[in-house]
UniProtKB/TrEMBL annotation:
The lineage of its organism: Bacteria, Pseudomonadati, Pseudomonadota, Alphaproteobacteria, Rhodobacterales. This is ASCH domain-containing protein. It comes from Tateyamaria armeniaca.
Length: 173
């Protein structure tokens, strides 16, 4: 995609993937971060943030599953790069959408994926430029979904989705 917008917004995985895949039509933010980041309508590049903690991934994996979205393995989600573009159509402070869950949100449409382009991210809307490398996987990512040692399950159900006995705790706010 040679016509990527020069302004980008950094979003943590797997939310960035869900936006580009067309599953997540709202990106939740605080009103303060929207104002400070000079966010508004228009087409933007979508940056997959480099950082990701296991607790965040676990919660978002579960949350996406509640919406019927099967999240990829964390090793399949590029980080520290532009992954496409999306049209921001507006800013909302209330919605009946299951995807709305904060003080405010950016409404999104027409996602267009691209091959990952490594670049550093920043807060708010930022001018991006290619550079750097993709984020390397953390140790927890290598073991995600593997049976825990001593569980006695080994590979009995290798294709079964990851299940949660109870919902994971929301790791922020």
């Amino acid at each position: 995609m040679s016509d990527l917008p020069r302004l980008a917004l950094s979003v943590r995985q797997p939310s960035a993937w869900a936006i580009i895949a067309g599953h997540k039509p709202i990106e939740n933010r605080t009103l303060g971060s929207i104002r400070a980041g000079r966010m508004g309508p228009g087409r933007i590049a979508l940056h997959a943030a480099a950082g990701l903690k296991e607790e965040e991934f676990r919660y978002l994996y579960w949350r996406l599953g509640k919406h019927g979205v099967q999240c990829p393995h964390p090793l399949e989600l590029p980080r520290g790069c532009i992954i496409g573009s999306v049209e921001v159509t507006g800013i909302i402070t209330e919605s009946r959408s299951e995807w709305f869950g904060g003080q405010a949100g950016l409404t999104l449409k027409d996602p267009m994926p691209c091959d990952p382009i490594p670049c550093p991210g920043a807060l708010g809307y930022f001018e991006w430029a290619p550079g750097g490398t993709l984020a390397t996987p953390a140790k927890w990512m290598l073991n995600w979904g593997a049976p825990s040692s001593g569980a006695g399950t080994d590979d009995m159900f290798p294709d079964a989705p990851i299940a949660f006995a109870k919902p994971p705790q929301k790791p922020w706010g």
